[in-house]
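Homework help thread (please don't just give me the answer)

Our assignment gives two proteins as sequence + structure token strings and asks us to describe the second one. The first is just a warm-up. Here they are:
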Amino acid sequence: MIKRLRRWLQVKTGRVETPIDGDAPFWVVSVGFHLILLVLLARIIMPAEKPSDLKLVVNASEQIDLVELPPEVAFDEEPTEPLGSNDAESFELANQEAPELAIENEVIEEFDMPVMEELGEIASENENLFSETAEVMTTVAKTGAAGFSVKGAAGAVDRMTEEILLSLQTRKTTVVWMFDQSASLLRQRAEITERFEKIYTELGMLQAAGDNAFSKHDDRPLLTQVWAFGQSINPMLEEETDDLEVIKESITRIPRDNTGIENVFSTVLEGVDRFKKDRRINRATGQRNRNIMFIVVSDESGDDSMRLDDAVEACNKYEIPVYVIGVPAPFGRDTTFVKWVDPDPKYDQEPQFAEVSQGPESLFSERLKLEFTGGDFDDLEMIDSGFGPFSLTRLCFETGGIYFAVHPNRRVGRVRRTDTKAYSADLRYFFKPDNMRKYRPDYVSRQEYMKRLKENEARYVLVQAAEASATGQLQAPQYRFPKLNEATFVNQVSQAQRAAALLEPRLGQLYGILKTGEEAREKEASPRWQAGYDLAFGRIMAAKVRAESYNAELAAAKTKKKFEDEKNNTWVLEPADKISTGSQAENMAAKARFYLERVIDQHPDTPWAMLAARELETPIGWEWKEDFTQPPEPRQRPANNNNNNAQPAPNPQPQQNAMPPKQKRPPPKL
């Protein structure tokens, strides 16, 4: 055959030599043989495709549920736009996310047993390697819930019943309650203690705990441990228990810590170290021994937030969710004032207010602190942010837990200070959680926060300006100038001018910082950053125009202004739409109104809209009004005429059966 092929090629080409001379024929035969062999082997190894014999037969008369219900999910409000943390050094050198579906507490637990056996053989000489490898394989991203607002601690405990039940559906669970030892938490601890029985009753654990089947420690599905923390960490039970009375009694024994220090993140880290053995992978089953849940009860933001990243990392490594029954953070502020009533009736029961660290809701404040407004903002200094303190909320959010923001006065609308409940923060306004969800801060690390800030200059300059406005007070202006005599009047006006002269550069600095982010603002997609920048830029422009026109009006007042009504003797400077400093100031005032009105239109029923509306209620310019001030009475010298025989006034007789006033104690460090 090869000879015939060679002969045919010689005739066709007219050449004696052909391509298949020499060893070429044998190479071609070898290649062909091996190709045929590979095809035969492939058909033997790969199974033939078989049609499925599965048929679904449905009887129309029967109702068959063919859809498995999905696990409970929480929608994480909006796309995450850059937001994060900024430190003072960074400023000296110079949110929302796409809807994401977060399945709460979803944990990949099960493994294919042949795979686990293979891992066991590989790591037979190194059990730590086996444990660490399995733990890494089970680590999954979890997202918790932020902004879960409730009126009382009992509501949070009821929700925790559901969370514990979900945990018990996967495996036995240990719940570790971590109570803040501060004095301001006395009432809340008592409320939670009373609610404990509801948890155990609803979960059916009281009856189960007395059954012989649960006599062994490992067989008891739900165990509880109680810790107390302040400056130090104090376990209240020698070992975990399911005895309800023992649990409740341990909470009543929690001592008060008067240092005012709450090392909450150190307590969480200590808890991880104590209970991580229960979260290791069981070599025989390929699963963790028990579920662990931390429930922190505190009314502060924590004094050791520098350990937050370590706490997040440790909890995620062992898949321990952290839940916090805490307080709402004040909008853009570090501290609030908690109403304190002495718990001992032997002492004065008059309410007192003590400053407590409960905020802010973001890593750094994103709210300008301005007082030169011409209006009254006192009741808006303490308003609900819609979220908890940043560090504790981030701990919950990143570990798959929930932050419960508890306040007994929670209702939409204004709360008077006299109506504030004892041991609660003096917050004047609350907002609907549904409205606030898309304004959630970004719960990320400090490094990620800085990275996100720098992605849009409007964000960066907003935080920078908020930081700068907090370095000193922008004092409110003087409005009344009695003209009892010319010299006194001129002196008062001059002093007010000096104060304004000191204020104007500060306002100009803040305006210059925010101005640099104006162009980048139009590229911002996050509702939170939009609202924050627009409010800050609108307010600083309004304040700048007010300060400049205020100074101009004071200068004009020195030019022998005369009263229209001769009975009046006082000039009063009142807010008005009149701007006396020229067209440039008028244009800036119009621009300020535009930014403030955009906040109200685009972000209704939020703290930003409330502050913008209050700013717009006060006109940006000034005008003089006349008024009357009662002159002081002349001092009268006593006339004794050398008469020293005046009789002293008799001492008043003490009232019969009069109760001595109760001693008043200052509030402890809360």
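The one we have to describe:
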Amino acid sequence: MAMHEMLSKLDPAKSLQSTSVEDLEKLGSEIRDVLCNLLATRTAHFASNLGVVELCLALHSVFDFRKDRLIWDTGHQIYPHKLITGRYAEFKTIRERGGLMGYPNPHESDYDLFMTGHAGCSVSTALGLKSGDDLMDQGNRKSIAVIGDGAFPSGIVFEAMNNAGELNKDLIVVLNDNKMSICPRVGALANYLDRLRTNPFYTGFKSEVVKVLNKLPVFGDPTERLLAQIKEGVKAGMVGGMLFEEFGFRYIGPIDGHDIRLMRKYLEMVRDQKGPTLLHVVTEKGRGYKPAEENPVYFHTPPAFEDEDGSPRVLSIGEKPAFTNYARDAIANQMRRDSKVTIMTAAMCQGNKLEPVRDEFPDRFFDVGICESHAVAFAAGQAKVGLRPIVAIYSTFMQRSYDQIFQEVALQNLPVTMMLDRAGLTGPDGPTHHGVFDIGYMRVFPNIVMMAPGDSTEVEPMLEFSLKYPGPCSIRYPKTSALAFERPAQKIELGKSEVVRRGTDGAIVAIGAMLQQALAAADLLASEGISVTVVNARFIKPLDVELLGQLFEESRFIVTVEEGALMGGFGSAVLEAACHHGWDTRILRTLGLPDRFIEHGERGELLHELGLDPQGIAHTCRELAQNFAGSQAAGV
């Protein structure tokens, strides 16, 4: 730690406003060194943080965020901000259980205002902060949103800009343009930003021209009105950024986001502007580490590497490939078999490992950017004309399209297949990314069929089933290795579970990858003389009511196990069915996630803490078996 002389001495109670440009540049070098040291020990968001070092330092040297407001969108670019706001000593714990979070966290620091793990909401919240400060007579506070060009096309951004233009608040939006989301950005807005970036008339020259043009008078007769229109047309051609101007924002830029001196100059200028202002800053993702500059996609969240030469160190999550790999291969196979099958994602091509699918089927692959609502409604349109669209989006991001799942898909009963990656505990990414609510938010809609593969062998059969089913389907799977359990193959049939093991004392009904934990728990119980049936539920909706009825009739106890929120989840569905059919609910226990947000940590650590590992499941079964034996002895 001693080698980071400036970082180790920073006082978070003091701003950087009096710090020289030279010292800020030295501070930037130390920050980059800390980031590289971190990647020697664990995977973390890397390239995006390297790209905002100077931007972060310039912001903190112009504004005083002990009172001013700063929202980072998306929050994974928060590391430099954390390092200069009093968390340097703890930084080595980032993304570890009990350590710093990899996203903004108000519980860690007053400098973090929102826990921002999803993209696009910064302009809305920054505008809300400014509006609230004005109403509370604290209008001297500045409000700044930093948003990347990958997140900028999100619909909520334009909703916020539309409102900001009307309210005319002193809002500053810093557009961090690095030509990237996780993968290269897509869409018409990306092309527009490219044109602004390559405009030969940079801000210094353009501002002088605009000053001259603004001095031209505007009179009332037709000739003079024509001259005024010509004047505005010249301004538009010289200045650029007219899309933003039409929303009521003063557009300034583009400027070099790695030149601290220049950045300070322009931030000081926009600090004193009245009304909404958009400062267009051009940065380079991975700046300062050549491999990350050359391959920012890989280095977005790379595996840990040796600090000496930057060579990757392989981090194994198990001998078997992840569920995501099997999902990707299943999608490709189905697209080879049926030309009506299409695939779409929302800026998560890399996360869903879909690059090979994109390359093989460019005409049937659609990356819509960080626009999940649009992705689902777009898929509904394709389904309406006879295609079989697959929407592959993380569980935590799919909830952003909740209204479209309801209105455009379920209500219309359209055959859209939703593949929910990262359904369950996502480990170091924490509560913003744990995909634990999809069962509850989808189960309430009529027409939707919901499935979860118990192992790797079920991924493709479930996808094939969904692509033949005449209505909407969802398939959820976690961020973990996918094992294969040897057993006779059983066809996927609507609402039918699979009995993997027969027992005489009780039953464990597992949904999805929790089958692995349930089988291991059954082994532990068997060594103690407790024999349990293990059921791979397969379907969340519709439930296998016939099998459940048999279990309630034959078992001394039943335990449901899910990697999702208990409230409204799979266990709740079983309990509802039991109440409806008059089954004895006293023998039922539901295991899943409690009614609180789960902090970050390795998946195995979290499963153990929540009683969802084999030992925890066995403990619950053991208690129920003992309770039953006690009741019998008492003659109850």
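TA reply:
I won't write it for you, but here's a hint about the kind of observation we're looking for: The chain has four domains: 5-199+240-294, 200-239, 323-476, 499-633.
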